[in-house]
Amino acid sequence: MTEKKCSRAGCESQAVKLIQWRNPKIHSSDRVKVWAACDEHLGFLVDYLQARNFFLGVTDFAANGD
After folding, report:
1. Long-range CB pairs of 8-13, under 8 A, 24+ apart, other chains included
2. Per-residue CA distances from 53 to 2, 23, 46, 50 (Å)
3. Distance of CA 60 to CAs 20, 24, 29, 44, Å?
4. Maximum alpha-carbon separation in the chain
5. 18, 37, 50, 54 - which has most CB atoms within 10 Å?
6. Which secondary-structure segment (H or E) carries 21?
7. The whole model's pTM is what?
8. Parts of the chain with a pLDDT under 50
9. Where are the domains of the chain?
């Protein structure tokens, strides 16, 4: 697995999950954005996206071959 840092501002931890999201007001239905998340910030980032109806799903970082 290639090292990737968590997308949470200021976090230097290695990501273990990828969070897929889209802002339906500005992104077409085929556009998917991705944030990386460490275990500590996964819940925070998912909650942030869910509150805005942007959240699409979570996958393991290693499962994506990144």
Report:
1. 8/37, 8/38, 8/41, 8/44, 8/45, 11/38, 11/40, 11/41, 13/38, 13/39, 13/40, 13/41
2. 30, 8, 10, 5
3. 11, 24, 22, 17
4. 34
5. 37
6. strand 17-21
7. 0.86
8. 1, 66
9. 17-64
User: Residue 10: what pLDDT?
Assistant: 95
Question: How far is the CA of 14 from the CAs of 4, 23, 36, in angstroms?
Answer: 6, 25, 9
Q: How far apart are CA 46 and CA 16, in angstroms?
A: 14
d(C-alpha 20, C-alpha 36), whole Å: 9
